[in-house]
């Protein structure tokens, strides 16, 4: 570890921790449950205690705690994807899941970790960690006076899953001697048909005819892509900000790998500002964007055209300097299309984001709140 990760060790990014011997109870005198042999009960109990120790140790180091393993692989740009998903949560949550398997890729707020760990410690020898998590959620949000369906809805409201999965288990040999673990996360291999970003609050509207449940609001929130039938001349998509905001950059990507032809053609990006922009500046913006006379002439009244979708179905760039706050960003179709259209990615940057420090380790520490399980309880 020192040879391969010396810089990470020195910076505090990587720490090697070992619990005190006293932290563990007697693991040779455990009650056998669920038909598991003694060795398996011992293994899963120690694993639960290891999870608890890691969570307690990591709790004061960041705003969020994510449980990972040493035998997983991750999707590209997974950290930014996780940050974005966290930012999009408008209602309170207990756990965010970035993998469907076991306890891999589970995120908690550090402020909740102590309570979660206390529950794990109370039942550390009874069940595996993922089963204990299920019970904890039931205790937190389910009412014994309601039916099972109500309970499931309540749990789903605080246990939210990101798809496709960001982490895949690649290990085969378990730390339990003789145990082979071949489980794979089926969602990990699914192609990314959309991409999420933390977009600012906006009122969305469109004249396009939406297909099934592929709604505009869902692509804006990063939940899926937007899909609509053949665009016609004059069709628009509006993103209205109330109050108006200062925007730095934008990106609109149409089409995806399953439907690469469902892209915007002869379509421009327009903005409506709160302040009047002088004509010479508008002319300069249009010139830099390389827009033709027809695109300029057909621009919506009181809107400034700033870009067009390219042949690949992508429109991106910076909002021109000096235009002030933006009230509306508009996608404006100038020609009827024979193909349907997909919006697979929307990114509008307003300079508001979760800092990296919220996810990164802090100063190296030897802190652990409890010397033993009995002390913790």
Task: Please describe what this structure looks like.
This protein has 377 residues and is of the alpha+beta class. The chain has two domains: 6-190 and 357-376, no CATH class; 203-349, Jelly Rolls (Sandwich). It has helices at 6-11, 38-58, 78-87, 110-122, 129-141, 148-158, 216-220, 279-289, 293-297, 373-376, and strands spanning 64-67, 72-74, 95-97, 106-109, 159-161, 167-169, 203-206, 226-228, 236-245, 249-254, 267-273, 304-308, 314-318, 326-333, 341-349. Strand 3 and strand 4 form a beta hairpin. Helix 2 packs antiparallel against helix 4 (110-122). The model is unreliable at 353-370 (pLDDT under 50).
Domains counted in the coordinates: how many? 2
Globally, the shape reads: elongated
Taking all Cα atoms into account, the compactness measure Rg is 26 Å
Secondary-structure content class: alpha+beta
The strands making up the biggest β-sheet line up spatially as 7-9-14-11-12
Task: Report the end-to-end length measured between terminal Cα atoms.
Answer: 34 Å
Please tally the helical runs, counting DSSP H or I stretches of 4 or more residues. 10
H and E order: HHEEHEEHHHEEEHEEEEHHEEEEH
Tell me about the largest β-sheet: 5 strands, antiparallel
Arithmetic mean of pLDDT: 87
Strand residues, percent = 15-25%
What are the segments in which pLDDT stays under 50 over at least 5 consecutive residues? 353-370
How many runs of DSSP E, i.e. beta strands? 15
State the share of residues found in helices, binned by percent: 25-40%
């Amino acid at each position: 570890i020192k040879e391969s990760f010396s810089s990470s060790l020195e910076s505090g990014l990587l720490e090697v921790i070992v619990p005190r011997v006293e932290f563990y109870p007697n693991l040779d005198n455990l009650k056998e449950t669920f038909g598991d042999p003694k060795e398996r009960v011992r293994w899963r109990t120690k694993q639960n205690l290891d999870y608890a120790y890691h969570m307690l140790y990591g709790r004061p180091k960041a705003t969020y705690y994510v449980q990972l393993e040493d035998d997983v692989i991750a999707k590209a740009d997974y950290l930014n994807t996780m940050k974005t998903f966290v930012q999009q949560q408008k209602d309170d949550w207990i756990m965010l899941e970035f993998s469907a398997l076991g306890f891999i890729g589970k995120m908690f707020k550090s402020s909740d970790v102590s309570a979660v760990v206390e529950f794990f410690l109370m039942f550390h020898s009874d069940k595996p960690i993922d089963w204990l998590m299920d019970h904890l959620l039931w205790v937190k949000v389910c009412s014994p006076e309601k039916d099972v369906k109500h309970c499931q809805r309540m749990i789903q409201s605080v246990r939210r899953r990101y798809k496709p999965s960001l982490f895949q288990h690649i290990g085969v040999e378990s730390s339990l001697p003789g145990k082979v673990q071949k489980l794979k996360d089926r969602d990990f291999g699914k192609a990314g048909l959309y991409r999420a970003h933390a977009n600012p609050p906006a009122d969305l509207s469109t004249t396009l005819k939406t297909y099934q449940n592929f709604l505009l609001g869902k692509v804006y929130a990063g939940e899926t892509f937007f899909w609509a039938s053949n665009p016609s001349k004059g069709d628009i998509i509006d993103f209205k900000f109330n109050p108006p905001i200062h925007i730095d950059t934008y990106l609109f990507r149409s089409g995806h790998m399953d439907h690469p032809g469902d892209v915007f053609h002869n379509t421009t990006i327009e903005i409506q500002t709160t302040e009047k922009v002088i004509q010479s500046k508008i002319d300069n913006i249009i010139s830099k964007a390389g827009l033709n006379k027809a695109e300029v002439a057909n621009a919506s009244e009181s809107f400034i055209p700033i870009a067009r979708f390219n042949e690949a179905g992508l429109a991106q760039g910076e909002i021109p300097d000096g235009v002030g706050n933006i009230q509306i960003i508009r996608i404006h179709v100038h020609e009827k299309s024979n193909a349907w259209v997909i919006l697979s990615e929307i990114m509008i940057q307003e300079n508001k984001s979760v800092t990296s420090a919220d996810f990164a380790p802090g100063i190296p520490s030897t802190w652990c709140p409890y010397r033993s399980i009995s002390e913790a309880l």
